[in-house]
Amino acid sequence: MRGDQANRLNNGGLIDRSAALNFRFDGKTFSGFKGDTLASALVANGVKLVGRSFKYHRPRGILTAGSEEPNALVELRSGARREPNTKATTAELYDGLEAASQNRWPSLNFDVMSINQLFAPIFVAGFYYKTFMWPAKFWEAIYEPAIRRAAGLGRAAGVSDPDHYDKAWAHCDVLIAGSGPAGLAAALAAGRSGARVVLCEEDFVLGGRLLADGGTIDGLPASEWIARTLAELSAMPDVRIMTRTTLFGVYDGGTYGAIERVNDHLPVPPEHQVRQRLWRIVAKRCVAAAGAIERPIVFAGNDTPGVMMASAMRSYINRYAATPATRIALFTNNEDGWRTAETAIASGLQVAAVIDARPDVSPAHRALASKSGFPVLHGAVASVDGGKGGARKISVSLTGGARAEVEADGLAVSGGWNPAVGLTSYHRGRPKWRDDIAAFVPDGAPPGMVAAGAANGAFGLGACLREGFEAGAAAARDAGCSGNVGSVPVADDEAFSLTPLWHVPGKGKAFVDQQHDVTASDVELAQREGFESVEHLKRYTTLGMATDQGKTSNVAGLAIMAAVSGKSVPETGTTIYRPPYVPVAIGAFAGHHRDENFHATRLTPSHHWAAEQGAIFVDTGLWKRAQWYPRAGEKDWLESVTREVKAVRSGVGFCDVSTLGKIDVHGPDAGAFLDRVYINAFSSLAVGKARYGLMLREDGIVYDDGTTSRLAEDHYFLTTTTAKAGLVMQHLEFCRQVLFPELDVQLTSVSDQWAQFSIAGPNTRDLLKEIVDPAEDLSNEGFPFMGAREVRLRGGLKARLFRISFSGEMAFEISVPARYGEAMARNLMVAGKPFGVTPYGTEALGVMRIEKGHVAGPELNGTTTAGDLGLGKMMSTKKDFIGRVMAGREALTAPNRQVVVGIKPTDKAHRLRSGAHIIPKGETPGPGNDQGYVTSVCFSPVLDQWIGLGLVERGRERIGEIVRAHDPLRGEDYDVELCNSVFYDPDGGRQRG
Amino acid sequence: MRIVCPFCGERELGEFTYLGDAKPQRPAADAGEDAVYDYVYLRDNVAGPMSEHWYHGGGCRAWLKVTRNTLTHEISAVEPAAGAGAAKVGA
Amino acid sequence: MAEFSWDVRSPLDRALIAGSYGAQGDAGVALTEIRDFDLVQVMARRGKAAEMVKAAQARFGIAAPETPKAVDTADTALIWSGPDQFLVLSKGGKHTIEALAAAFVGSASLSDQSHARALISISGDKARAMLAKLSSIDLHPDKFRVGAAAATSMDHTSITLWRGKDRADGQPVFNLLVFATFAESLWHTILDSAAEYGVTITHSEKLA
């Protein structure tokens, strides 16, 4: 290891030398500068070995300078913020950064698992499928854990992420992906035309390849042109420039996904700020100017540290003033690669040789070679020698068969450029092949999108600017913006001149996919074994399936497949492109919605009062509901619930039932409308009365139930179950708007308008008399069972009172406007004190409904008919209603259907459990003898034993029969008696009294 | 996906709920079991433009008839259900 | 005779803590809860849209909105809430459902929503940035102008959103009606979204 930033050039680069930053890699302290990435700082410090490979644990270095990096993956940060598989090439350096190499043990320099290399012959394509076949039981216990330990990449933090993420929407006329020359030119044209523009750049500075390759635009050095362009764009109020933001997906209707790394460049996000933000961007038009990715050439030892993409080497030298090597060899098959030789010489580095696979080299480059004194070798790199210390010796096969050796500590490779066709292909688009650049380019794009610049196969600077500018202007025009776009920025177009070369045959491992350790011979083996289709090739070898999604490997892989199968590259084709373009943290997709904010929460009007009482809450859908109200000294929930039930049955209690869905049904045809949605009649209901109603689905299965009251000729107040409130509203609107548009009826949700309390127990009337104005007649005659009307309360408040009972006791439900809900709870406590009033929760509510045999969610479970629930007689024969015809089908009226029945263990001390299957005595448990199951259970304080409801074949005909409750889940099997489902007050005298 | 609600304008998918094929018409009360069976269960498996019911429950609560290409998700037409905005039609 | 009173409690009573929240310095977002209002949903009966509009004109002196917008008088806002329907928002007691019943008899069905919603007003130079985290609709000043309204969703919750008159300092004002039982949850989500910009929280007993 060399000294502190020994590989940093004295001048140049887009780094701030006044801002030194200290960081640690594998426990060692280094320094870098603001403007560095972790990778560039490692390069500046002479660190070549940064990780071990996935399968063979081979030493690996830095291959690229961007988000396509397959090798330089690190664990960034520590503790709960440890983030595995972070690309050193995009991780922005900050003071105090901590990173560790991955996939090595015990250390990067000495890795035990590198022994895998010796077994390399067995780690071939399809290795897992072929090797771990037998015995099957070894898979979970032995093979999988061992494989997971040996393979894989970084380690997850294992604890909750302490940082925050959020999500946001953005809207624009023109969205631009990428801020290279094409993207910036597109932004200029669109911005000048008056369009709302969003420009996303994944880097932390704008410029794309201009940052490394420079050039002259409109007579200005690239850096000055970028600054001038940025100033012009920044002055436009409707142009939004988002750096550190990757456009990762294209969705329907002009919706795009982007991830903004808001504070990844800081050790910890500032207080109140998020780490990352997920953007959903709605754009009328999109210019995909995401550039191109330089592609490797596959040869033996091409994964040796020190072997680097030629363009990446220029990035490190020009952008970061960091030298990856002192004596550089260049292996290229195109003119563009030569820029690295030019850069090296301009920076005072030695060029050992240029190995050019083409027959001819331009006169200018030949002159450069002779002037600088390096040989130009026509041929190809056959192999690279060197280990974890990096490349040392390069063996070259010269055209004509001779061999040559070159000594160098760095090898720059350029196999040409692949346009980034991800964005344009995400709607199952298949790119097309262009012979002149030997690359796939977009063939169309999702609606509203167009590719420009290198992403479209235009590699010259002038062409990028022209295409970008024209695409930006056209996009703005299509979006309806017609301002003057000015003139297109001008630059020269460089020659490209490429001779395709994918793979140099030779001895030793030649890697196609470096992240997944897929070699050229794996691809050849896949072809021999018949996995010739690119989709099969991908799955069989795992080529392109790593976190980099094969950005540097896919095209080479399928070119090799094409060669061995005797096809052309376009005949071989590409796999399907799918988002995301870069890995996106699950935390970003979750955003705000985690922990207590996992979903929105609904609170009842008396929630805070109940919390004061010490209520235990239960999540019911989005609601928090009081489940029971424990008192000091009660040993468990059952004791509390039993006390609440007894208090209601012997005195009086109340429960907030505001969670029921409540719907105002208005209009002259309201009654007729309800007749069609309920199985029973509502047009005949008298004003001032309530009725229990049952709704079916059109297929004849029960949908929902509840009481509906008629408050006026043209006004009904309908209630639904808590669970189905939203769905019933949707269903009723469907009926109103789609099925029965001829009816004059209006629907409004009033679920949140009313705080509704059930008041139950023999003392209910006494308590109500304290609350309700004395002028109101609450007697059995003045307010009979199923009465419903508006009343005035003491103090003048208007309320609605319904004489309905779910508990089987004398009961009312009372509704007050919701802002009085808390006052109502407090007043019931004060007024009810002399009568021993007790608040009760959903558990006691459930116990009393089971004792009373009322059906609820477990019985209205999407499989039961009205008849199954014992409510078949409610079905009117005088009218049509939803579900009527299908409810009459043979199977739905079969005599052997499972119907609701009461169930109690014969041993009174035995606890009944829901889910237990009903099996006849003496039969073997199994599907053939399964006659139903227990749906709801409770401990009944009235009967002093566990009781339940169940759905049992011919249950109502078998009252008194002893059957078995078979519960394999809990390992239980016990006798139960089938009984009347109404355990309590079967005549209903109490609720009518 | 985005749907242009005829009442609210263009909105994102999350505001809408999908129901399904809008072609089957609920049979008259006396149409018989076979007709109702077809209405409830029989559906074309359309590859291409299809008329579908969508509910703008996260917005104006209108039921909509959306013509969507099931292969591309392209939406070519959106119209309100007969009873959405019915206050403007004849009594 | 027990002693008790009918205290009114806003669904945001516990959640709203007046003062500052989040990042220090000049607050980018101001949050206000407006209390003491009447809110009535007016839905035209079948074929009676024109009659409803006429009745609204007679009662309020302005045309009821027939597209997504909100129109104001001195003490009342009529806010579009869907096809053939709008909300009447007024200072408490001004246009109660009882008072409106006669005006719309035969032309519209009325439903009292006074207690069903909480009214939150959001303003400030970061109001749009904050709302972009919660709302999928485009609130650009040229697209969602003063008086624009939307029946839409935030945090999977139905809301009614409209843009009020700009503040005296020129900053935009967004009014939001949220269902009462969701109000506390949405309030916390709003605070979380606004924290990075700094928030000033107040509550007002009446409509501005």
What descriptors fit this protein?
heterotrimer, A: alpha+beta, Ubiquitin-like (UB roll), FAD/NAD(P)-binding domain, seven-stranded mixed β-sheet, B: 91 residues, mainly beta, Folate-binding fold, four-stranded antiparallel β-sheet, 1 helix
Shape of chain C: globular
Radius of gyration of chain A: 38 Å
Low-confidence segments of chain C, given as residue ranges, are none
The CATH topology of the largest domain in chain C is Gyrase A, domain 2
Number of helices of chain A: 25
Superfamily (CATH H level) name of the largest domain in chain A: FAD/NAD(P)-binding domain
Secondary structure category of chain A? alpha+beta
| Whole-angstrom Rg of chain C | 18 Å
Care to count the β-strands of chain A? 49
Q: Could you name the CATH homologous superfamily of the largest domain in chain C?
A: Probable tRNA modification gtpase trme, domain 1
Class of secondary structure makeup of chain C: alpha+beta
Which percent bin holds the helix content of chain C?
Answer: 10-25%
Distance between the termini of chain C: 41 Å
**CATH architecture field of the largest domain in chain A:** 3-Layer(bba) Sandwich
| Name of the top-level CATH class of the largest domain in chain C | Alpha Beta
CATH C-level class of the largest domain in chain A:
Alpha Beta
* Second rung of CATH, namely the architecture of the largest domain in chain C: 2-Layer Sandwich
Pfam family, one (chain B): SoxD
Keywords (chain B): Oxidoreductase
Organism (chain B): Mesorhizobium plurifarium
Enzyme class (chain B): oxidoreductase
General description of the model:
The complex is a heterotrimer of chains A (993), B (91) and C (208). Chain A folds into 7 domains: 1-160, Roll (Ubiquitin-like (UB roll)); 165-292 and 420-478, FAD/NAD(P)-binding domain; 296-415, FAD/NAD(P)-binding domain (3-Layer(bba) Sandwich), CATH 3.50.50; 500-564, Arc Repressor Mutant, subunit A (Orthogonal Bundle), CATH 1.10.10; 615-658 and 754-849, Gyrase A, domain 2, CATH 3.30.1360.120; 661-749, Alpha-Beta Plaits (2-Layer Sandwich), CATH 3.30.70.1400; 895-992, Elongation Factor Tu (Ef-tu), domain 3 (Beta Barrel), CATH 2.40.30. In chain A, a hairpin with a 6-residue loop joins strand 3 and strand 4. Chain A has 25 helices and 49 strands. The model of chain A has no long low-confidence stretch (mean pLDDT 94). By secondary structure, chain A is α+β, with helices and mostly antiparallel strands. Chain A starts with 15 loop residues before the first strand and ends with a helix. In chain B, strand 1 and strand 2 form a beta hairpin. Chain B contains 1 helix and 6 strands, in the order βββαβββ. In chain B, the strands form 2 sheets. In chain B, strands 3-4-5-6 form a 4-stranded antiparallel β-sheet, with no helix packed on it. In chain B, strands 1-2 form a two-stranded antiparallel ribbon. Chain B has 91 residues and is mostly beta strands. Chain C folds into 2 domains: 19-35 and 115-204, Gyrase A, domain 2, CATH 3.30.1360.120; 37-112, 2-Layer Sandwich (Alpha-Beta Plaits). Chain C contains 4 helices and 12 strands; from the N terminus they run βββαβββαββαβββαβ. A 7-stranded mixed β-sheet of chain C has the order 1-12-2-8-11-10-9. Chains in contact: A-B, A-C, B-C. Chains A and C meet through strand 8, strand 30, strand 38 and helix 22 of A and strand 7 and helix 4 of C. Chain B: It is an enzyme of class 1 (oxidoreductase). Chain B: This is Sarcosine oxidase subunit delta. Chain B: Pfam families: SoxD. Chain B: Keywords: Oxidoreductase.
